[in-house]
Fold Beta-lactamase.
Amino acid sequence: MSKLSDQTLELLSKEYLNISGLAIAKDGKIAYEYFARDSEKDAKIHVASVTKSVFSILVGIALEKQYIKSIHEKIISYFPDLKISSRNKTLSQLEIKHLLTMTASYKFRSEPYSKVFSTQNWGWTALQLLGGIKPIGEFHYTTIGIQVLSSILEQTTQMNINAFATKYLFTPLRIIPPETLPIDSRETYFKFIKNHYSNGWAADPQGTNTSGWGLMLSVHDLLKIGQLYLQNGQWEGKSIVSSQWVEESTTTHSFWENKPYGYLWWILDDETFAAIGDGGNIIYVNRSKNLVIGIVSHFVPRSKDRIDFIENHLIPVYNL
């Protein structure tokens, strides 16, 4: 394993101060690593929306194991007790796929964090925010809205999200299972966000883990997840998630402006896809280069673009 150049280290120390850890895997082997002075090698960091892409894998596993029959199943079929207003024209037509592609319709424009986080069951609250007058198919990126996926997965598997992920994803990849951390107040939310070093996964007061944020992972955990997808769902000779799901989830299904989106994964080009989390967390995978890059970062607002950093300051400089 080689060291990053002094030039790259200087760039990191001046312009990317919130990066805690960076690791590059080329041809299945770690080629470069970097850790900030105050960071431990295996420190778990809140990776924000990278959680979404991890959850996409869990949905793929649930499909393969027939817990979920199809992503075209109607969302309301899982919630027979839900009362639908006659004014809510779209809710009955929404499918699981619409949650995965961010094309579901919602009754809100901006994320209603306070409204959802003040309840006991975030998934049920998010469910009641689905639908409205906007047409299905328009891209609406949301963290709160896809909490419905957590409710569906728990209901179909009859397992806690964390337990399901531990059994079918974390343990096979030798990722230390996170502790479930219920968020039951504004204070516990901010305590979670500000906790730079922990091994946890946020959950609502009932213990249902989040699907759109809240997972803490190390930079090596990110590499493993990226490598799993680079290897078409295979890990040490065993299938963790089907190759069909890997392909489908990293294929373009919707667009945010001109940016392609798969099933909770961002599509950068025909060979490259990424899991991207607020603050500068990323799993970057390039199939043709047999390359995986993981970066974990402490949250800062308006962090510098990690894709620009990777494609202009890592790949060409190190001939990756």
In short: Residues 111 and 144 are 6 Å apart (CA to CA). The chain has two domains: 6-53+161-314, 75-151. The first helix runs from residue 6 to 15.
